[in-house]
Write a structure and sequence with these properties.
This protein is α+β, with helices and mostly antiparallel strands. Helices cover 17% and strands 35% of the residues. It is globular, with a radius of gyration of 17 Å.
């Protein structure tokens, strides 16, 4: 009974968040903007994001992505990855983003990237302070960045756990 009550509350909350989110734009007019949502699957972004968390994705110009932002990008073969940007650089006219999951137990190295489009670059791990070589993700593979407010990711904790369980 307790699980059923939690599920019903979760569905109501998700319904409320699918409606437009108020956005105060730079013109000062305000307005509504719809954000696609994504369900986090896996532990690579713990402790910030957990499996089952629902996040909002904002489509942005790649020049608006900064080191420290959490982005969503398409990996080879239709897989989507939600990881943090640790370095931005240009390679052969491609704007490239090195990404890394926050949990160093499951992510001891940065994401593999696209070496043919982005080459390799030296990256300093912001947590351990050691250097490694990594390849970035080209800007055209980025779907957007995870919506945050004053540095805090806007998420609905664990609400997508059922979707994660059904995918497995």
């Amino acid at each position: 009974m307790r699980a059923l009550k939690a599920l019903i509350i979760s569905l109501i909350v998700i319904g409320l968040f699918i409606v437009p989110i108020v956005n105060a734009d730079l013109s000062g007019k305000g307005g509504y903007r719809y954000y696609p949502i994504a369900v986090v699957s896996g532990v690579s972004m713990e402790p910030i994001l957990h499996s089952g968390d629902v996040v909002f994705i904002e489509k942005v110009n790649p020049s608006q992505i900064h080191v420290g932002d959490v982005i969503v990008y398409k990996w080879i073969g239709k897989k989507y990855v939600i990881h943090r940007v640790v370095k931005i650089y240009k390679f052969n006219n491609n704007l490239c983003f090195v990404t890394w999951g926050d949990d160093r137990k499951t992510n001891p190295l940065p994401d593999p990237g696209y070496p043919s489009e982005c080459g390799y670059v030296k990256v300093k791990d912001p947590i351990t302070k050691r250097y490694v070589f990594a390849s970035g993700v080209p800007s055209y593979e980025i779907l957007g960045k995870v919506v945050s407010f004053r540095g805090y990711i806007i998420k609905i904790p664990y609400i997508g756990s059922l979707a994660v369980a059904l995918r497995k």
